[in-house]
Amino acid sequence: MKLTFWGATQQVTGSMYLLEVDDYRILIECGLNFDLNEKQKKALYDEQKSVFPFDPTLVNTVLLTHAHIDHSGNIPNLYKEGFEGQVVCTEATYSLTGILLENSAMLHQKRLNTANGKASNKKKKGSLVKDFPRDLYLQKHVKQALENFFPVAFGQRYRISDRVNVSYIPAGHLLGAAHIVVEVRDVDGEKKTLCFSGDVGRKNYPLLVDPQPVPQVDYLICETTYGNRLHEDLRPPGEALLDVIQRTCVDIPGRLIIPTFSVGRTQALLYTLNKLYLDHQLPPLKVFTDSPLSFGSTRIHQKYSRQLNQEARDFKEDNEVLFDFENLVYIEGSDASKAVSNYAEPCIIISSSGMVQGGRIEHHIAQNIENPYATVLMIGYASEGTLGWRLLNGQDSITIQGKQKKVLANIEKIDVFSGHGDRDDLIDFVKNQDATQLKNIFLIHGEAQSMRDFRDTLAVKGYEKVVIPERGQSYEL
């Protein structure tokens, strides 16, 4: 049995790990790498002569922990390059991954049309220009991928080969997200077990269940996004959000712009706002939700409400709806999105993406960044180099939509809506494992310093067999 680390090694994005059991190959995660720019990706793909550093036709099965694009976003390319197997994930992950991949394909199609200069020529629609990036995929590739997903339930064991069983354990973090436990029996019948953490959620998060403990395993592959950080704001989400709204939209009649991810984070925000509204705490402000993707994601959260935490299920039973309240406006078309800029009253604008990298949020930031009565509220992680990262780091000017603009708007941050467990949550996750029985802990999905610091923290706790893999590094298990 061999495990090779092909992504999210000493960086956060691009999760991808290849487990080989004799001649049976299992790919765990198949995510997009946001840490590479287009030039770097092109060089890498040209060198590999593929999007992947391995032959996709030799992969038998994909295991997916959750829907986020840095875990799922390259699945259509896997099929495009010859993969013929199934993607195993939970039902909710299947639904959320579907809308995320379809949205990605739509964006790829727009880029393709622009590159071709023939957006209005239907005969050419879907064709590829010669030098377009290898990782482009279209709706037909997404459709092919989704037809081969195999949804499974939490807590059940599933056989994916004669010697391999898998089970999915709730991880929090996102609707449908799972820790994946892989059981492998060798020819003598001896069992070895691995756990891929996916992204570890945090306790008492709006809507989501707490991450569940994992039974003892031999090998633990653990994320480290917050491996050296604690969440700073310990207030309940409603209290923290209401404080910002009061200061930015009431005390000073301005507008509050919240960049957020359409899948998961937006629903946590809307649920919290709905609770504030029903408790008569929310001021009479218009709340604009500007993301078609978030509308689809909200419907999926309603569909799978039985998988939400007890508080959310009770709230739905008492109030019938989780997310809709008076003054909430869903924006659909791009013209309506731009028209929000003309709304003169104090308001809240929720739009994607959360790192302010692409999406409709760029228009809202561009229109308001030089307005001292506007506030941009960052509520989650932003990768280094993204526009969100630059705002958080206090740059006094930014380039957005091709124009240089001064940062006169107020920039604030709260982390009560971060879906990632912090250092203490990660320690709690690892502490379910007896250090004397663990053969190794592999640290992934974090910045290099975060991994090194978390390794040191684990050593103090008695976990000394901790490895930080490099990209392409393989381990015999």
Structure characterization notes:
With 477 residues, the chain is of the alpha/beta class. Strand 3, helix 1 and strand 4 form a beta-alpha-beta unit. The longest helix is centred in the first third of the chain and has 26 residues. The radius of gyration is 22 Å and the shape is globular.
What attributes characterize this protein structure?
477 residues; seven-stranded mixed beta sheet; 14 helices
Question: What percent of residues adopt helix (DSSP H or I)?
Answer: 25-40%
What is the CA–CA distance across the termini?
5 Å
What is the global morphology?
Answer: globular
Task: Please give the count of helices.
Answer: 14
Strand-pairing-aware structural class: alpha/beta
Strand content: 15-25%
Instruction: Give, in spatial order, the strands making up the sheet with the most strands.
Output: 6-5-4-3-2-1-22
Number of strands: 22
Radius of gyration, in Å, reads: 22 Å
Contiguous runs where pLDDT drops below 50 for at least 5 residues: none
User: Strand count, sense and closure of the main sheet?
Assistant: 7 strands, mixed
Mean pLDDT: 92
